[in-house]
Design goal:
By secondary structure, the chain is mostly beta strands. Helices cover 0% and strands 69% of the residues.
């Protein structure tokens, strides 16, 4: 009913990555430890027919942070609805606020379909610009074999540019 996680790790390799929209700024300070924490409560109702979860996570490295809150509810082996809000910040460089909501339906045991709405707002402080984007994702999770999942997705973006753009994506997940 409760998950608690915490960790501290080094990030010298990750410090080599640069943030887009900046003048060669890394999000992570490779000389500072990265601290993470996550907490989730998993209440269940009606003889475990209705599953719910609510939680939060946090990552911090010097003046870079990622904080998220999430929640969801599901009817076991049928349908679930979840939402997540994430805030990302690098002092004097950028701030991003992202919202996601997803509805997932289990058609039968190895086949799920889902629709997801995503909204992104990122402010680049060095250039005083803000970028907004919305996305709709339609996809499925297909368990071809035990521990092998195929996940095709179709994503439609609406950005500041005229019109929309779209893309197909296929992922293969192997669980061990």
């Amino acid at each position: 009913w409760l998950t608690l996680q915490a960790g501290v790790f080094g990030t010298s390799g990750l410090a080599q990555m640069r943030l887009p929209g900046t003048t060669s700024v890394s999000a992570i300070d490779g000389n500072s430890p990265t601290i993470t924490a996550r907490a989730v409560v998993w209440p269940r109702f009606m003889n475990d027919l209705i599953n719910t979860w609510v939680g939060a996570s946090y990552l911090v490295n010097n003046d870079f942070s990622i904080a998220s809150g999430f929640l969801g509810a599901g009817l076991s082996d049928h349908v679930s609805l979840m939402a997540e809000y994430t805030a990302v910040s690098k002092t004097n460089v950028m701030a991003s606020r992202n919202l996601m909501a997803e509805l997932l339906w289990q058609i039968y045991s190895p086949l799920f379909v889902y629709g997801r709405f995503e909204h992104y707002t990122t402010e680049f402080r060095q250039t005083a610009t803000t970028v907004n984007a919305d996305a709709i994702v339609l996809g499925s999770q297909i368990f071809l074999l035990p521990y092998v999942e195929l996940r095709p997705e179709y994503r439609i973006w609406d950005t500041a540019l005229d019109g929309t753009s779209n893309r197909w994506n296929v992922q293969v997940h192997i669980f061990y």
